[in-house]
Input
Amino acid sequence: MSRWFVLLQHSLPKRGLSDLVGWLTRLRAGPLTQIAIRLFIRGFGVDMTEAADPEPASYVTFNAFFTRALRSDARPHAREPAAVLCPADGKVSECGRLDGARLVQAKGIDYTLTALFDGDASLAASFEHGDFCTIYLAPYDYHRVHMPLAGQLEALRYVPGALFSVNAATAAALPGLFCRNERVVTVFRAGEERFALVMVGALNVGSIELTVPRGQTFANRPHARWEAGVTHRPDGQPTLDRGAEYGRFNMGSTVILLAPPGMLRLDDAVVPGRTVRVGQALGWRTGG
Output
């Protein structure tokens, strides 16, 4: 079934479908928008008591609802100074130690850091033998992404690509899924070490937006300000606090956190299939 699902996706006009969904979710359709929002809330059991604005009627587009902010107390942050915070709500698809430069995508399928970083081997080399955690955001999840640690932005690389679905069925049947799809790679410096966040687009993802670099905000659609295939060193190298909002998906997708060797010890409870929430302790910082 997974292979048939992937074959079907090969034949679909994925970019066109995603553009159409993006347009529809931004349409101010009045009563139709409200019907769509309320059906989504009911069908997926969305807890609107967590939202900063819990009233569905206050959202003028479906995308405004989809990317809604949460109450300040809805995702309390782990207080331990050494805690590495979970950057996104979702489900852990894979995590653990890299085998050299290789990460696990699904059982029996892996991919390389250099491919994920779109050929920037020197940037990828920082994370060889390190640790990673891949988090899949379902359509009903909270879609803002937050900083796991305080960090100064050092590098940003925008990678155009396909928009395959990133659910478990596709991950199990399509090698190099995260290296095929559109994505944004950001690398931060935290003290003497680096960490990376990779936001991977997917079918029906209208756009990826980042809150950094400040004053030069990144948005890949409809027009990218950042040249594709080039590792940019943003002006001013802005710093974001631990737990601060970093970016958002305008539909569901995947976030990959990468840490260099010796920096991150994942919590024993963080295993594939585990549901995680923004701000919980994903693991513990062991390096400087």
In short: The helical segments are 2-11, 14-25, 31-44, 62-66, 113-116, 121-125, 168-173, 177-180.
